[in-house]
Amino acid sequence: MPDALNPPPGECVQCWYHAYASREAHAHLAPREDCPDCVDHMEYGCPDDMIAY
Asked: Among residues 30, 29, 26, 9, which one has the least CA distance to residue 18?
C-alpha cells in the first residue's frame, strides 16, 4: 500500500491522503455522508499549492 502521507510528484496531497488513509480522513463523517473536502476537489479541482513536487 502506498504511504498516505507521501504522495508521488504530481498528485494532490489531500486527495492522496483521503484515498489511502480513508478511514482516518473520513472518521468524522456519518455513514454514506460525502466528504466536503473530497467533493470540493472533485467539483473545482485540486489547488496548485496542494500538488506534490
From this structure: 26
Q: Could you read off the pLDDT tens digit of each residue along the chain, which spans 53 residues?
A: 568 999 999 999 999 999 999 999 999 999 999 999 999 999 999 999 999 99
Dist CA 46 CA 6 (whole Å)? 17
3-state helix, strand, coil in the chain (%, to 5): 45, 5, 50
Structural contact between residues 17 and 25, judged by C-beta atoms closer than 8 angstroms: yes
Q: What b/e readout covers 30-46, taking b as 16+ CB neighbours within 10 angstroms? A: eeeeeeeebeebeeeeb
Phi and psi, residue 36, nearest 5°? -60, -35
pTM: 0.88
